[in-house]
Specification:
This protein is an all-alpha fold. It has helices at 2-21, 25-33, 48-54, 59-82, 85-100, 113-123, 125-142, 145-163, 168-184, 186-194. Helix 4 runs antiparallel to helix 5 (85-100), helix 4 crosses helix 6 and helix 6 (113-123) packs antiparallel against helix 7. It is globular, with a radius of gyration of 17 Å.
Length: 210
């Protein structure tokens, strides 16, 4: 009975965090406020970079706020109810799954960088420093946001391993989170290798790649 109760609680938390993740700022703002679905433009991705390149403007900050807050809430909820670092990774994983594969938006969402970064900051400042530090350096120096994003996804499990070497469940969840982020950027990897990846600019444009 105890194991069943524990399984049920973890399942309910996973479900709650997934639906938090489904609250995709880029889709909601573009589809219901601007009446022009961001997924019909540029790379077709429902993420911050594609939203900014397509629409720009002050609503970009609304997208940022949505994607950050849902990750903060997911990690906080898991931490509060389940307790411990592993629980935080549990919440982060399902929030990312909801962000990337939102059931109410035909499972077509974003790539998880902003939400994943917010979750990392909630979990441990050391992890956030490595993830965000590398992201910012690569994005600023190369102008390729995708390159910084790949660093964020790839480094996340390894810095977790360094910070929590004995929490194998947390490390496994971190590898799943990081793996999902890298997988979502597989198209960017192809464009980086072929030299066709678009560089980031503060000025938005109507069509582009991310």
């Amino acid at each position: 009975m105890m194991w069943f109760t524990l399984f049920l609680i973890y399942g309910l938390i996973a479900l709650a965090c997934y639906f938090l993740g489904c609250f995709n700022g880029a889709v909601i703002v573009s589809k219901y406020i601007l009446r022009d679905d961001v997924r019909n433009h540029g790379s077709g991705n429902a993420g911050l970079t594609n939203f900014h390149r397509t629409f720009g403007g002050g609503l970009t900050f609304v997208v940022i706020l949505c994607d950050v807050l849902k990750a903060v809430l997911a990690v906080w909820l898991s931490r509060t109810i389940l307790g411990g670092v592993t629980a935080e990774y549990w919440g982060a994983l399902f929030c990312l799954l909801g962000h990337m594969f939102p059931c109410m938006f035909h499972f077509k969402g974003g790539k998880g960088i902003l939400s994943g970064g917010a979750a990392a900051l909630m979990i441990d400042w050391r992890i956030a420093l490595v993830v965000w530090g590398g992201f910012l350096i690569l994005a600023v120096v190369t102008k390729y946001v995708s390159l910084g994003s790949l660093w964020a996804g790839a480094s996340f499990p390894f810095i977790t391993w360094y910070c929590y070497p004995h929490l194998w469940a947390a490390i496994l969840l971190a590898f799943l989170c990081g793996g999902l982020v890298v997988w979502q950027h597989r198209g960017n990897v192809k464009r980086l290798l072929s030299g066709t990846e678009s560089k980031f600019s503060l000025h938005h444009k109507k069509e582009g790649q991310t």
